[in-house]
Every structure is written in C-alpha cells, then in structure tokens.
Amino acid sequence: MTFYGNCIFTSRLCLKKLAVNDLELLAEWSHALEANGLYLSPENLDIGHLTHQLKSGALWNDKEKRFMVWLKTNTPIGSIRYWTVSGQFNSVIISVKIARESERNKGYGTEAQKFLIKHLMENENIRQVQMYTDINNIPQQRCLAKLGFEMQEAVQYQDQNIMRNGLLFTLSGQTFARHPIYRYHNE
Ligand SMILES: CC(C)(COP(=O)(O)OP(=O)(O)OC[C@H]1O[C@@H](n2cnc3c(N)ncnc32)[C@H](O)[C@@H]1OP(=O)(O)O)[C@@H](O)C(=O)NCCC(=O)NCCS
Questions:
Q1: FRET partner for 37 with CA separation of 20 to 30 A, picked from 47, 77, 78, 105?
Q2: Using a 6 Å cutoff on CB, does residue 42 contact ligand 1?
Q3: 19 CA to middle of ligand 1, Å?
C-alpha cells in the first residue's frame, strides 16, 4: 500500500480523494437502486449540494473523508468514506459501495476496506473501526469476517429514512495488529 496525500494505492485499486469531476457519477450512483444494492438506501444526492459540500470541505476534513474507488485500469467502480464516531476521536465508521454490479464478488470490496483500514490504523492514529450492516447483507458480512471484524451486537440503525435491523461489527487496534490479512498481505 502506498499513500500519496490524496490517494491510497493497492495492488488493483486506487482510492482517490473525491474531486469535482467525480460528482456527477457520485450523484448518479446515489440515486440508482442497482448501485446501492438491497441493503443500502439511496442517498439521493443533489449535484449542486454536493458541489457546495465539496467546496466547503464538508466531504474531506479531519473528521470525515470520502474517496472514489478506481480500478487501476482507470475505471471508477464505487466509493468509500469514513467519519469519526461522535465523542470518540480515534474511532471511525466506514461505509463502502461497489456501485458497478458487474464488479462485485471480485474481491474489490474487501481490498478497498482492508487498505483504508490499514491507512487509518497506521497513519491516522485510529484505534477502532465500526461497521453497521443490514442483517441480511451476507456479502458485506463475509468481507467483515475476512477483515477480522467481530460482531458486537444486533442493532437497529437509521439508513436514510429506513430503520434497518442490523449488526454492529468492530475491529480493534489489537486485532488489527495481529490479524494475518493485515500482516502478511502487504502488497
Ligand atoms: C458489500 C460489498 C461492498 C461487497 O463488495 P464485493 O467487492 O462484492 O466483496 P468481495 O468480492 O470482496 O467479497 C464478497 C464476499 O461475499 C460472498 N458472497 C457474495 N454474495 C453472497 C451470497 N449471496 N451468499 C454468500 N456469500 C456471498 C463472496 O463469495 C465473497 O466471499 P469470498 O471471498 O469468501 O468468496 C458490495 O456487494 C456492495 O457494494 N454492495 C452494495 C452496497 C452495500 O451493501 N454496501 C455495504 C453497506 S454496509
């Protein structure tokens, strides 16, 4: 993994800081049901609002950052973002979306999350990552198992205007430090 200011490079992906040129696609994906899948509610983002948010720094600051996920072959396939848990400066929540259905089940979701987590733990002084997922979102739960997350509790959480029956998973700094996926797959 290499981190150059605004990009995290992995073996197959580049997680790039969200830029003005990405907003049209981000807005399109935020409306499309197939881009969100069955277990993520469309955010229905408005491009004018997004432009304002990007310019004001609301999408990239000390507490929150949003990346586009690109294949190294230069195709954008999704987005990933994190934000600080309220009142816990070294805990973050991550949300990921591989928006192109044809690119799911190729390991990209796991890879994007893995290297964002490595970056956060190794460079940003983060000590805990939390992920909320719908109770029926088996692909994401499979990713989280591969990434060493532990299920904490069943929760109801707000996803746009829907209350979902979900699960809260966490990864601690201690588990990160000893889990093989982060120690021995360092490409
Ligand atoms: C969840 C998501 C990020 C996973 O990304 P991905 O690139 O497809 O994930 P990966 O290919 O790395 O891993 C998916 C795993 O789920 C497994 N899987 C997929 N569908 C499955 C199913 N119906 N039943 C059981 N396992 C399934 C795959 O086999 C794979 O596991 P494996 O590596 O052990 O074989 C992606 O599906 C997505 O963006 N979905 C829409 C948005 C979303 O739900 N985001 C998460 C919100 S919490």
A1: 47
A2: no
A3: 26
